[in-house]
Amino acid sequence: MTEPFGPIDNGPDPGEALAGYLAEQHAVQALRDRPQPEAPWPATDNPMLDYLLDEAGALVAEHGPEAALLWLAVHAWREGAIDDRARIVRSLQG
């Protein structure tokens, strides 16, 4: 298991931090606005989902809910990117 991250620190106003983050990513806004071709979440029987939830649950007991949520968000984001890249490779392979 990867060690949990430190506390989340987006400054005094997380909304302001998000606005700055999104402003830097204006080139990909069209991707966010497009409808999803399929559900952007895994099936309920996905083994990676089960692993992530199990690890996050263990982190709650050991490090608290904030560390567990941050760990889960970061790893789910990563797994989502990996899954999307795999989908693209599969579509290119025909």
Protein model, in words:
With 94 residues, this protein is an all-alpha fold. It has one domain (14-93). It is built from four helices and no strands. The chain has helices spanning 14-24, 29-33, 47-63, 65-93. The radius of gyration is 16 Å and the shape is flat. The model has no long low-confidence stretch (mean pLDDT 82).
Features:
94 residues, mainly alpha, 4 helices
The arrangement of helices and strands along the chain is HHHH
| Proportion of residues in helical segments | 55-70%
How many domains would you count in the coordinates?
Answer: 1
Radius of gyration: 16 Å
Mean pLDDT: 82
Q: Show unreliable segments.
A: none
Give a topology summary:
Blueprint: H1 14-24, H2 29-33, H3 47-63, H4 65-93
